[in-house]
């Protein structure tokens, strides 16, 4: 799979300028509530000084190139936000894992599993 | 996609929200976990998150269109915008925060187009959240290499003599295109002018609507 991902020689994967690619996909989508919440968490946590946009980008850019194809935009963002919050000592991996298990027990859909 | 669910009505008789009736994903569970823990630890509150989303929903390309219409009609504002777009737009209530905003003007000879080759940097204070195509590999890769072909895919074909300038955004520096004012709009109100200004015309992938569109 990795060899099918276009890469510009000498650039890291996120540095896409000048690479080859197909037609621009013009379809758009309305952002889902969970995506807006991820965006809001980024803005609030950075405004409160827990990490910076550079911290967000560092984790995104350290992901493997396949992340761009396999994860959506806000999936990458929440992965980076949680990593930054762990590094900042705000959250621990243990409590995140424990809470995720509890959430997955609550229901099969986002609506059922989310209190909000 | 959100409009494909007419046959799946909730008990209240409304369609389920698209994001609420799909199987819970790993990443959605992570979002819920992080959000709940941040609220429990007092880092933020549910109301603060909801308020942030409201503010996000209220930032639409209408903000940018108001800036463009004012630049078209007020020479002092136009000069202020060229001098320091962050400050000029903050004074209209569209604060971009610590980021630098640069307004680039289209003319008969020059067409500007904005991209973020590294990620998705975008003047959110004026245009809202970036559309999916702005974040796509194709747009990010090709706009700096073959902007005329990319423009053609958006239905914009410019004369060969028109110079195209591509601006690559960064986390700290954002661009807004001030499209050329359409001919035949002398004496128009700022509101009518703003109605001609599309989101894509402020990214440079489109042109303003024709004045005939409003007649």
> Fraction of residues of chain B in helices?
25-40%
Radius of gyration of chain B: 20 Å
Report the structural category of chain A. Answer: mainly alpha
Mean pLDDT of chain B: 91
What percentage of amino acids of chain B are in beta strands?
5-15%
Poorly predicted spans of chain B: 1-7
CATH class of the largest domain in chain B: Alpha Beta
Strand segment count of chain B = 4
Largest interface: A-B, 68 and 60 residues
Model description:
- The complex is a heterodimer of chains A (116) and B (215).
- Chain A has 116 residues and is an all-alpha fold.
- Chain A has one domain (30-113): Nitrile hydratase, beta subunit (Cyclin A, domain 1), CATH 1.10.472.20.
- Chain A has helices at 33-47, 53-62, 66-70, 73-87, 93-106, 110-113.
- In chain A, helix 2 packs across helix 4.
- Chain A starts with 32 loop residues before the first helix and ends with a helix.
- Chain B has two domains: 1-58, no CATH class; 60-214, Nitrile hydratase alpha /Thiocyanate hydrolase gamma (Nitrile Hydratase, Chain A), CATH 3.90.330.10.
- Chain B has 215 residues and is of the alpha/beta class.
- In chain B, strands 1-4 form a two-stranded parallel ribbon. In chain B, strands 2-3 form a two-stranded parallel ribbon.
- In chain B, helix 3 packs across helix 4.
- Chain B has ten helices and four strands.
- The model of chain B is unreliable at 1-7 (pLDDT under 50).
- Chain B has helices at residues 26-40, 46-58, 61-73, 75-83, 85-90, 124-127, 137-142, 147-153, 190-194, 199-203; strands at 100-105, 110-115, 163-168, 173-178.
- At the A-B interface, helix 1, helix 2, helix 4, helix 5 and helix 6 of A face helix 1, helix 2 and helix 7 of B.
Explain the layout of strands and helices:
The complex is a heterodimer of chains A (116) and B (215).
Chain A: H1 33-47, H2 53-62, H3 66-70, H4 73-87, H5 93-106, H6 110-113
Helix pairs in contact in A: 1-4, 2-4
Chain B: H1 26-40, H2 46-58, H3 61-73, H4 75-83, H5 85-90, E1 100-105, E2 110-115, H6 124-127, H7 137-142, H8 147-153, E3 163-168, E4 173-178, H9 190-194, H10 199-203
Parallel strand pairs in B: 1-4, 2-3
Helix pairs in contact in B: 3-4
């Amino acid at each position: 799979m990795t060899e099918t991902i276009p890469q510009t020689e000498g650039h890291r994967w996120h540095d896409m300028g000048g690479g080859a690619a197909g037609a621009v996909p013009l379809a758009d989508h309305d952002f889902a509530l969970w995506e807006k919440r991820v965006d809001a968490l980024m803005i609030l946590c950075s405004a409160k000084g827990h990490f910076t946009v550079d911290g967000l980008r560092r984790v995104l850019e350290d992901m493997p190139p396949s992340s761009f194809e396999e994860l959506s935009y806000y999936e990458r963002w929440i992965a980076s936000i949680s990593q930054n919050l762990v590094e900042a000592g705000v959250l621990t991996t243990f409590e995140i894992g424990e809470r995720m298990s509890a959430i997955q027990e609550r229901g099969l859909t986002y609506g059922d599993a989310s209190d909000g | 996609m959100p409009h494909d669910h007419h046959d799946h009505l909730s008990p209240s008789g409304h369609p389920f929200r698209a994001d609420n009736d799909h199987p819970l994903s790993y990443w959605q569970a992570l979002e819920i976990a992080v959000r709940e823990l941040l609220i429990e630890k007092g880092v933020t509150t549910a109301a603060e998150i909801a308020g942030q989303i409201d503010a996000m929903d209220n930032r639409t390309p209408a903000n940018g269109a108001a800036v463009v219409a004012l630049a078209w009609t007020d020479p002092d504002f136009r000069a202020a915008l060229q001098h320091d777009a962050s400050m000029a737009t903050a004074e209209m209530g569209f604060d971009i925060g610590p980021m630098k905003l640069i307004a680039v003007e289209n003319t008969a000879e020059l067409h500007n187009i904005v991209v973020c080759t590294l990620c998705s940097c975008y003047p959110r204070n004026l245009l809202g959240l970036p559309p999916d195509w702005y974040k796509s590999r194709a747009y990010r890769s090709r706009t700096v290499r073959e902007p005329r072909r990319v423009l053609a895919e958006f239905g914009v074909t410019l004369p060969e003599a028109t110079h195209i300038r591509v601006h690559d955004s960064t986390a700290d520096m954002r661009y807004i295109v001030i499209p050329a004012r359409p001919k035949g709009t002398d004496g128009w109100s700022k509101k009518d002018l703003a109605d001609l200004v599309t989101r894509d015309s402020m990214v440079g992938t489109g042109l303003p609507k024709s004045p005939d569109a409003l007649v």
